[in-house]
Amino acid sequence: xxxxxxxxxxxxxxxxxxxxxxxxxxxxxxxxxxxxxxxxxxxxxxxxxxxxxxxxxxxxxxxxxxxxxxxxxxxxxxxxxxxxxxxxxxxxxxxxxxxxxxxxxxxxxxxxxxxxxxxxxxxxxxxxxxxxxxxxxxxxxxxxxxxxxxxxxxxxxxxxxxxxxxxxxxxxxxxxxxxxxxxxxxxxxxxxxxxxxxxxxxxxxxxxxxxxxxxxxxxxxxxxxxxxxxxxxxxxxxxxxxxxxxxxxxxxxxxxxxxxxxxxxxxxxxxxxxxxxxxxxxxxxxxxxxxxxxxxxxxxxxxxxxxxxxxxxxxxxxxxxxxxxxxxxxxxxxxxxxxxxxxxxxxxxxxxxxxxxxxxxxxxxxxxxxxxxx
Amino acid sequence: xxxxxxxxxxxxxxxxxxxxxxxxxxxxxxxxxxxxxxxxxxxxxxxxxxxxxxxxxxxxxxxxxxxxxxxxxxxxxxxxxxxxxxxxxxxxxxxxxxxxxxxxxxxxxxxxxxxxxxxxxxxxxxxxxxxxxxxxxxxxxxxxxxxxxxxxxxxxxxxxxxxxxxxxxxxxxxxxxxxxxxxxxxxxxxxxxxxxxxxxxxxxxxxxxxxxxxxxxxxxxxxxxxxxxxxxxxxxxxxxxxxxxxxxxxxxxxxxxxxxxxxxxxxxxxxxxxxxxxxxxxxxxxxxxxxxxxxxxxxxxxxxxxxxxxxxxxxxxxxxxxxxxxxxxxxxxxxxxxxxxxxxxxxxxxxxxxxxxxxxxxxxxxxxxxxxxx
Lengths: 374, 374
Fold this sequence. Notes:
Two copies of one chain form a homodimer. Chain A is of the alpha/beta class. Chain A has helices at residues 45-51, 61-66, 70-75, 79-82, 95-100, 127-137, 155-183, 199-209, 228-238, 259-264, 274-280, 312-316, 319-327, 331-357, 361-373, and strands at residues 2-8, 15-21, 24-28, 30-32, 56-59, 88-91, 103-107, 112-115, 122-125, 141-143, 188-190, 192-193, 217-219, 248-250, 269-271, 283-286, 289-292.
């Protein structure tokens, strides 16, 4: 994996670049659709490629480890072949899901012991084992195991979790380097900056992680219940410490209006379940604001969902039809709504990238901020 | 609507033909995918057109009358525009659903009073009103209101229901002819032969319905719990009485192996929720037999679902991946499974049609019957 920085905004920290992977080139800044269980809920790989032109998607190690199992996926040729997705895949380490989904977590210096949310079976994730699981999946960009705290956390607890995250990153990296030599894999491994909402801890963590000379760095532990200004602030104190020539990935953000704010703070990669989950719940993002499709006002609305959107959903169906599908709990609603919301996110990122390349990002950002205030 | 008979099998009653409608030409024999609530569950119109090349689909008057309402659909340009399906649509009269889904049915000579299964509201369907509802939907082929009995029924009850069906057909037809003149609609209206499992009643009903000189005839009241030999027998006593130059539609059948049997008895059109409902439940039809995808034997099965099938699902994914999607309750499973099962049905009908046109239907049928016995 190689990152090519193409342009930097002189006024903000915004960057445009290319991530070269064994499964294609990713234009950054990029939003990565979430395909938790080896499928972006409601979409087929051809929807993702042909309609959305997504270059990279995310899959969750925790879920795939539990079902169908990484060894099963490896026997079937790896995750790309399993889900028939020829483009890039990023997998998380499973740490976040262990902390948010599983029961009976027990953290030791070795790793984290947990019970599956599916059948209650006990499992252990270590910094080494999650690398092995991700190598078995065959992902292009892997994440180190980290300890992610809920918000709020005390400085002491945050420091302890950050220190553990650092130790795990070192252990994970050592194992990763051995395994790369053994396997000839080209997978990248990103360490994760933690430190809760404490700038000193974030800075200390970032600084120490630099020693790993990683091909990219993630900022984790955000979107865990804190006010949004804090998430942005933590990003802002971290990115200046990270190497310019490596991509930066803020995990689990965000709302559409937040995407350009993260980019303005030097972030290259983002992911979030929000566009797809909201879609299934009938909350749709459009160029003229949010549409809650179940509202009676859309019952006879023959207009497209978003007249400025070129997605299949907006080209083909009325708001009235979408509302009918939602009210009738039809499967097609999830597909059409997810297609649109992800298109909205990906189009926004393409516009942001374009504006950076053309040197117009500050004006673009200004326009968005003003529109948000109206 | 015009039916063009292209070929008849000299040994069996099988026919190949073309139904010319305002929304395209339908090659018969044809299987019509069921799009109950103005969507074939899990599929988009482009899946139906591009992947399946379906020429006609069915929609349920009962469901659309209740939600979103036929007047709403009419205001939005009719059902074709509402669901963005430019090809032909057949709607049932709503009678069958009233008898199978709604509460508190009360039948009078006027029509049938029922309570919505959605909100308990009382509604009345009359032979005239269901024609009006279907005209508002803008379907290409409409059905008359009929009384459909459960199995078994006494000869007396069956006779009474058949007589009521005849009266309703006459009333519906009279109303339809007036409305055609008023509206300039080109919709066809098919009467329905009833008579439960009594050949004398089936014959009497068919003979009397001939007087309507309808553009097509349906055989209803089958697949209501009777043994399959009886359904075929009732078809066999009815089709010889129907005019040769009009299409014959057996409602609500059947299993894949039954399709050629109905064709052999002179049937041109069929519909059934079975391929799509079974798909969603993980029961898949293949050229080598049924696949119950949840079975552990498919866990590591890298083969396509059906090596002889050219559908997107079989071209793209392994049985192991499909099993994973099913086990994980992923939406994509419903889409991929429905696509395959409907492709299986439509391909079978295309093969049947081809064999009739080439004069090889008896050999084709013989091969299928032998394979079924193995």
